[in-house]
Amino acid sequence: MPALTALTRAVSPRLAECELTFIGRQPIDYAAAVHQHTHYQQLLRDLGVKVIELPAEDRCPDSCFLEDTALVLDEVAIITRPGSEARRREVSGVVPAIVEYRNVLQIDAPGTLEGGDILRMGRNLFVGTSVRSNVQGIEMLGVALQPFGYKVIAVPMQGALHLKSVCTALDDHTLLADLRHLDPAAFPEYRLVQVPPDESPAANVLRVNGTVCIHAGFHKTIDLLQSQGYELSTINISEFLKAEAGLTCMSILFDASAS
Ligand code: GLY
After folding, report:
1. What is the DSSP letter of 161?
2. Beta strands 206-208 and 191-194, pairing class
3. Measuring CA to CA, which residue among 106, 117, 55, 54 is closest to residue 84?
4. What is the DSSP letter of 82?
5. For ligand 1, is residue 243 a contact (CB within 6 Å)?
6. Ligand 1 contacts CB of residue 67 (under 6 A)
7. Over the stretch 18-73, which tens digit does the pLDDT of each residue have?
8. Domain range summary for the chain, segments of one domain joined by +
């Protein structure tokens, strides 16, 4: 198994001013968020990942959710153009770290794309047509990655921020999803596990070296996945859930030895 590296970014002191689209604002405890972020980084290390932390961009409340700024594949990286104008300022702080490892290509206007919308399953990249990623951005991604043998498949979705807010991989053949936001016909080749309806955000799990990481409060989903034999690690990310984010948002995982 290749050694994975995770880029992470420190939590902005302005996290409580984060962008919110489909959920209401609740108080966020910054000190608790920093603590949870440290635990997240340690969980990755415990699972064999080398963790790099970039400095926070204090003007950008959402900057710890750096997954949205770049897609790093073995052959190349794509620097995104976030659909949230407020979040476009985050990109410049991430690019210098990415160019140390990969040649980069860029999504340009009028395209918009956020990494939270990109679900990679082998050489297939499923991309949500969300409030943040538009048709032009998805088409640009397809053109950029066609020479590398990746297929980009647009997935219509509704009522959630990103595709990976409601659909992530449990293994190479299985997706955990809230199918109220997606048409299952988008994934004909995969087994779909429906997340318990009252735990919709649990559909954002982070798969690391065979372990499925999940927020510790999603008890029904934890029971469901344990009953199906998945190896789980639980972690409390309550403050980031209030920021309409999840486990995948807080890192960019890649094989630093590739390319
Ligand atoms: N707060 C996460 C986002 O809106 O991008």
Report:
1. S
2. unpaired
3. 117
4. -
5. yes
6. no
7. 999 999 999 999 999 999 999 999 999 999 999 999 999 889 999 999 999 999 99
8. 4-255
Q: Which residue of the set 162, 167, 181, 215 is catalytic?
A: 162
Cα–chain center distance at 37: 15
Q: Is 18 a catalytic residue?
A: no
* Residues sharing a CB contact under 8 Å with residue 25, sequence separation 6 or more, in sequence order: none
142, amino acid identity: G
Q: How high does pLDDT run on average in the chain? A: 97
Catalytic site residue from 18, 64, 213, 249 = 249
Closest C-alpha to ligand 1, atom 1: 19
Say how many Å lie between the CA of residue 62 and the centre of ligand 1. 6
Q: Check pLDDT > 80 for residue 2.
A: no
**90: which 2 tokens?**
């985050």
Q: What is the pTM of this model?
A: 0.97
pLDDT in tens, 146-160: 999 999 999 999 999
Q: Tell me which residue has its CA closest to atom 3 in ligand 1.
A: 19
* Residue 117 pLDDT greater than 90, yes or no: yes
Q: Which of 252, 254, 251, 211 is nearest to 39 (CA)?
A: 251
Report residue 43 CA to chain centroid gap.
Answer: 16
Measured CA angle at 154 (ends 6, 232), to 5 deg: 40
219 is catalytic: no
pLDDT at 171: 98
β-pairing, 174-177 vs 191-194, is parallel
pLDDT at 196 over 70: yes
45 CB burial (10 A radius; 0-12, 13-18, 19+)? exposed
- The CATH architecture to which 4-255 belongs is 5-stranded Propeller (3.75)
